[in-house]
């Protein structure tokens, strides 16, 4: 079961944090002694233990000085960091949940102790992705997340750069290029988990290829976009493989190779289904609707739109032609965006 699904929206408190460390080290006294040692006995162990007892009673309130000290020395449990990371990454199945449920699951984690730790960056990124799904400006959330960049893990820095590049791509192409360059640099960091690297790389390719695939940009540009998508390995995480097939299919369609584009669309639909990714499946069906005709095309379009509605994803709904008149994206490139 993916991190984040085990406890649902049950709040994580200072008491949970302290009790977890007490169980790990054997007692609250042992936690106090360890913290006192790390602080070179600026306070005695008994004084530290009293501070921890007070902290334990603060629920999800401000942790104060002792909260800061505990987080600085111990950090958050790996299970908690894994959970909020899962909610903050675009390529996890968290994005396959209805938007209202995602918001409900995220809400308790944007409070202490998580909100007083570097892991809050994942909560902000999760909220930014929800804003994009609602077609709301995510910039304020990304600006808050940028303040945590120095302490954030490399996966969060790459995630932030990709989301920021997407947000500013139309109004400030130069800023988007800088953000993509930052993401590319982070992809080479050995600290990245292999599966995360593969998915983040596929997303980076997709965003670099996007401007090349705009209608009317010329066969040479569409061919370059296709070559970029071919750089995504055709093995590894199903998300990345589905993203490869989908992007390559749109590129081939722009190049006029409809039969090859159809093959990639069908492959993307199958891979997204195998991954259990509703969002990727909707995008693959959207491509299939473009490369087929008649009843099959209409059925694929209706299925894609139905998934978007089920996910409460206004951005996908509009992109697939389910929005208000005049708001529907008109270009193939827009319809292929993640």
Record the SSE blueprint.
Elements lengths: L13 H12 L2 H11 L6 H12 L7 H11 L3 H11 L10 H8 L13 H14 L5 H8 L7 H15 L4 H15 L6 H16 L9 H12 L7 H17 L3 H18 L2 H14 L2 H17 L3 H6 L12 H5 L2
Summarize the structure in short:
The protein has 18 helices and no strands. It has 338 residues and is mainly alpha-helical.
Q: Top keywords for this entry?
A:
338 residues, mainly alpha, Serine Threonine Protein Phosphatase 5, Tetratricopeptide repeat, 18 helices
Record field, number of beta strands: 0
- Strand content is under 5%
Number of helical segments with 4 or more residues = 18
CATH architectural type of the largest domain = Alpha Horseshoe
Q: What is the CATH H-level superfamily of the largest domain? A: Tetratricopeptide repeat domain
- Termini separation: 25 Å
The first-level CATH class of the largest domain is given as Mainly Alpha
What portion of residues is helical? Answer: 55-70%
Weakly predicted, low-confidence segments: 1-8, 324-338
List the domain count as a whole number: 3
Shape: elongated
Mean pLDDT: 92
Description:
Helix content is 66%, strand content 0%. By secondary structure, it is mainly α. It has three domains: 14-75, no CATH class; 77-192; 201-338, Serine Threonine Protein Phosphatase 5, Tetratricopeptide repeat (Alpha Horseshoe). Helix 7 (120-133) packs parallel to helix 9 (154-168). The radius of gyration is 23 Å and the shape is elongated. 44% of the residues are buried. Residues 1-8 and 324-338 have low confidence and may be disordered.
């Amino acid at each position: 079961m993916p991190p984040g699904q085990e406890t649902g929206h049950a709040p994580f408190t200072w008491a949970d944090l302290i009790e977890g460390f007490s169980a790990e080290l054997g007692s609250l006294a042992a936690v106090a002694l360890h913290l006192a040692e790390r602080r070179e006995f600026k306070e005695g162990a008994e004084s530290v233990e009293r501070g921890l007892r007070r902290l334990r009673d603060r629920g999800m309130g401000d942790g104060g000085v002792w909260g800061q000290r505990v987080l600085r020395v111990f950090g958050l449990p790996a299970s908690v960091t894994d959970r909020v990371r899962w909610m903050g990454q675009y390529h996890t199945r968290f994005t396959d949940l209805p938007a209202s449920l995602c918001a409900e699951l995220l809400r308790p984690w944007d409070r202490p102790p998580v909100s007083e730790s570097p892991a809050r960056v994942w909560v902000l990124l999760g909220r930014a992705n929800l804003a994009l799904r609602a077609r709301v400006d995510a910039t304020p959330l990304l600006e808050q997340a940028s303040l945590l960049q120095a302490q954030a893990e490399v996966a969060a820095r790459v995630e932030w750069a990709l989301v920021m590049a997407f947000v500013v791509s139309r109004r400030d192409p130069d800023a988007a290029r800088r953000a993509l360059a930052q993401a590319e640099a982070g992809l080479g960091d050995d600290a990245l988990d292999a599966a995360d690297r593969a998915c983040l790389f596929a997303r980076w390719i997709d965003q670099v290829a996007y401007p090349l695939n705009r209608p009317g940009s010329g066969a040479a540009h569409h061919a370059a976009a296709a070559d970029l998508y071919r750089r995504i390995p055709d093995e590894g995480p199903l998300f990345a493989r589905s993203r490869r097939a989908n992007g390559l299919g749109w590129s081939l369609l722009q190049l006029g190779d409809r039969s090859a584009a159809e093959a990639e669309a069908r492959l993307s639909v199958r891979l997204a289904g195998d991954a259990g990714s509703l969002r990727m499946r909707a995008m693959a069906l959207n491509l299939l609707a473009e490369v087929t005709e008649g009843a099959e095309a209409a059925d694929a379009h209706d299925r894609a739109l139905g998934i978007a509605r089920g996910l409460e994803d206004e951005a996908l709904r509009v992109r697939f032609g389910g929005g208000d008149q005049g708001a529907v994206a008109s270009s193939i490139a827009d319809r292929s965006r993640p």
